[in-house]
Amino acid sequence: MISTSAISSASDPQIACSELKAQLDLSLMTTIIFYCASSFDLSLLADAINSHFPDNECVGCTTAGEFNGAGYETDTIVAVGFHDSCFAIQSTLIENLTEFSTFDAQKTINSLRESIAEKALAHIDSNSFIFSLVDGLSAKEEVFLTNLDTFTNGIPHFGGSAGVGLDGNKTHVFYDGKFRTSAAIVMFINTKQKFSIFSVNHVDQCRSKLVVTDADARTRQVFEINGEPAASVYAELMGLSVDELDAEVFSLHPLAVKIGRDYYIRSIQRVNKAFYSLSFYCAVDKGIVLNEVSLVDINMPLLKKLQSIRNSLGSPHMVMGCDCFLRRIASVSKGVIDKTHAIQSEFNLVGFNAYGEHINGLHLNQTFTGVYISEEAYE
Fold it and tell me: Domain boundaries in the chain?
């Protein structure tokens, strides 16, 4: 056994945790990662987790949706238990993202490395990866991830930003028995299994270029594009009114920055009608060029990537993923959800719909980012 996943759709936290416990063999695992709908009463859920899993280290976050091999889920809690015979895991909490410095990043990575060395199952540098969960509305992901990546020494790193349902306004991570805001969790994972960290999007090519002429980088708010109110410019580009702009429009018609030869989507979060400005989930600033981009079939890049990894590493045991919630909206809107579910089933995708995805120091939007864990172990 390598790991075990579990899911519960019970709305009562005690019942949900009881159902998860029945699906997980706790005698085999120390660490459990979970992803929960923000519709839960989080204080009651914390109590339930602590009472049902007193001897396990439980870490997790709130989501904008969950998924497992059976497809996308809503109002559930999904958990993954990592078997101690295959994984050695050390985690730590970053309590205040605002004050997280390069010195803190160095101290964090050094401490995790020292701790994992005492229980490593395989070579640390070649058989380890880092997983991060971050408050998805902290607006601190870019600085946090850049600082952290400075000291990872080439160890691959991925993760996701916690999400929330349409009616919520806070995202949370869970560590040491509590749900927390403005915080992050960093996990150093050493394993005997073959694995591959990856990230894909479905950007095709640039259609037009827009220049941000007024913005507040601190709040990720763009006030003007090409010298005009940002929301009006974007709406006109889409052939819509500002009142028609919503999450579905944002998911199907994204804006992206170009770094080198690659485009990285900067997803729009909302329209602020008081200023006709646009708020984003990723970093934006005055002077940057936002590209209107066309998209390919949302499922094909992910399927091709997973098939390629399978050809190299063997059959998947599980793909632990962070899938942008706007990809989920686009999959439904485009009527391709059945194909999405087929991929989730074929490769046993387990994870959550995020407000942003992390890979090797970058904070991304509208990607599927994850780790492919093979059934095969390194010799």
Answer: 3-199+300-377, 203-295
